[in-house]
Design goal:
With 346 residues, the chain is an alpha/beta fold. The chain folds into 2 domains: 2-126 and 306-323, ATPase, nucleotide binding domain (Nucleotidyltransferase, domain 5), CATH 3.30.420.40; 135-300, 2-Layer Sandwich (Nucleotidyltransferase, domain 5). 43% of the residues lie in helices and 18% in strands. It has helices spanning 41-44, 52-74, 93-110, 119-125, 169-179, 186-195, 218-233, 240-266, 281-294, 303-306, 310-323, and strands spanning 10-15, 20-27, 31-39, 83-89, 114-118, 137-142, 147-152, 158-163, 270-274, 297-299. It has a 5-stranded mixed β-sheet, with helices on both faces. The protein has a 5-stranded mixed β-sheet with strand order 8-7-6-9-10, with helices on both faces. Helix 2 runs parallel beside helix 3. The longest helix is centred in the last third of the chain and has 27 residues, at 240-266.
Length: 346
């Protein structure tokens, strides 16, 4: 279908799965014309994490503004848009409902196709933005709710080689941040603390002796919690920077190791990264070192494209619009969880 295109394709992407209200216009699945993001992050800081009710209310007041800003920045109108793509899952249900309802209303009013986007596939599609990345490749997926090694065979077909058996790496970062007294959002805070520390605290290596592509972060997270608890009970001060550095090293090194394993065993020569933890400087540096050592090409999206944004949703929406016949109806509903995030279209 892509070969038959005779004009540029403009996709409007709407993202509201957590605390970012994001609307973006993307041209031909790669060129970001606008990327408006209004975050309610600061409203959640006193609670140490995202409060679903607060996030949902923030979306309702911000989404109009985000749309206006995205269209103005892109220099287009709704009439220029070819299709509207929206995150329908996974995420906070109330937050998702705001974006889904808004996108359905726009699609109905403007007579535009509606495309339902799986948030996780959006993180994978972020690799195409502002780059020449083409399948086949291996994706290291490190979002807040998912950690996986994904084999991408073409623009619409992929398979999971391995995933987390319990907690995701992003969840582990957030939990460790709370234990260390680092304010929300935890990931950037842990990274900053780690820069002043050393990897001197022995922590368990996940799935030791396991030759699969799977991950497990519950044991590592618990080990950090117990270490901090024991020091506190003994009346000792927590070496926050050393704990952060030791945790970050343990959490990220295994991501690199499993990615290299996938490259060796599949014979693929390209790797992309996606998800919030892909913005971590230590992980990006280790992946760059691995790419040089094992001679694979690494595509690491700009940091702003690793966290939630509308551009990645538009990019995945473009792939569905061009390469598939999948279109959503006005009965589209939000879903807090999507069991099979690779195969499921609606």
């Amino acid at each position: 279908m892509a070969e038959k295109l005779t004009k540029d394709v403009y996709i409007l992407g709407v993202e509201s799965s957590c605390d970012e209200t994001a609307v973006s216009v993307v041209k031909n699945g790669r060129e970001i014309l606008s990327d408006a993001i209004l975050s309610s992050c600061t409203e959640h800081i006193p609670f140490g994490g995202v409060v679903p009710e607060i996030a949902s209310r923030a979306h309702t007041t911000a989404i109009d503004m985000a749309l206006d800003r995205a269209l103005k920045e892109a220099g287009v109108t709704l009439q220029d848009i070819d299709a509207i793509a929206v995150t329908y899952g996974a995420g906070l249900l109330g937050a998702l409902l705001v974006g889904v309802s808004y996108a359905k209303a726009l699609a109905y009013a403007e007579h535009k196709p509606l495309i339902a986007v799986n948030h996780i596939r959006g993180h994978i599609a972020a690799g195409y933005l502002n780059s020449d990345l083409k399948p086949p490749f291996i994706t290291l997926l490190t979002s807040g709710g998912h950690t996986a090694i994904v084999q991408v065979d073409d623009y619409t077909h992929m398979k999971v080689l391995g995933s987390t058996r319990d907690d995701a790496v992003g969840e582990a970062f957030d939990k460790v941040a709370r234990v260390l007294g680092i304010p929300y959002p935890g990931g950037p805070g842990v990274q900053k603390a780690a820069e002043a520390g050393q990897n001197v605290i022995p922590l368990p290596k996940m799935l030791k002796g396991d030759h699969s592509y799977d991950f497990s972060y519950s044991g590592l997270k618990t080990a950090v919690v117990n270490y901090c608890h024991n020091l506190t009970q003994a009346g000792k001060e927590l070496p926050v920077s050393d704990i952060a550095c030791s945790f970050q090293t343990a959490a990220c090194d295994v991501l690199v190791e499993k990615t290299v394993k996938a490259i060796k065993e599949t014979g693929y020569t390209t790797v992309s990264m996606g998800g919030g933890v892909a913005a971590n400087d230590y992980l990006r540096r280790k992946m760059q070192q691995a790419a040089k050592k094992y001679r694979f090409q690494l595509y690491a999206p700009e940091k702003r494209l690793c966290t939630d944004n509308g551009a990645m949703i538009a990019a995945e929406g473009y792939l569905q619009y061009v390469y598939t016949d999948h279109r959503a109806g006005l009965d589209l509903n939000a879903s807090a969880t999507i069991p099979d995030f690779i195969k499921e279209y609606v």
